[in-house]
Amino acid sequence: MHLYRLDDGARNHELPDSLEKSVDDIPSTIFDDARNHWKNRFKEIKKMNGRENPYQLHQIWEKSCWLTYSSSRQPITRKAFRIEDIEGRFQDVKCIDTTDWLILPLAL
Questions:
Q1: pLDDT tens-place values along the chain, 108 residues long
Q2: Residue 83 lies in a domain
Q3: CA–CA dist 69, 44 (Å, integer)
Q4: How many domains does the chain have?
Q5: Is position 58 within any domain?
Q6: What is the 3-state secondary structure (H, E, C) of 30-74?
Q7: Is there a contact between 100 and 45 (Cβ–Cβ < 8 Å)?
Q8: Is residue 67 part of a domain?
Q9: β-pair partners for 3
Q10: Three-class SS of residue 104?
Q11: pTM higher than 0.90 for the full model?
Q12: Which of 25, 79, 81, 98 could potentially form a cystine with 21 if both were Cys, beta carbons 3.0 to 4.6 Å apart?
């Protein structure tokens, strides 16, 4: 075991000398499945043709869903409701940019 000391000296962390598994021990199907999952997810997003503008929905989210500390739980409850509302509205989003130039291949 190596001891790793933070610069501020607040705590020590024990790091193992070696890992139990390396990336070579993981079946390649794990990585292939992840790649296929994200390829399919991006295809699904590009097919979205709803009425909501994602940029405007993001602006609404920023204004109404940021959580800040408060001694009262009431504002947090209202914001949780707004988050659920926006999650529902996301299902009706229109994908504005359906080109592939922004979708970079996963480096797996």
A1: 444 444 544 454 555 566 777 778 888 999 999 999 999 998 999 999 999 999 999 998 888 777 666 666 656 666 777 888 888 999 999 998 888 765 556 555
A2: yes
A3: 37
A4: 1
A5: yes
A6: HHHHHHHHHHHHHHHHHHCECCECHHHHHHHHHHHHCCCCCCCCH
A7: no
A8: yes
A9: 14
A10: coil
A11: no
A12: 25
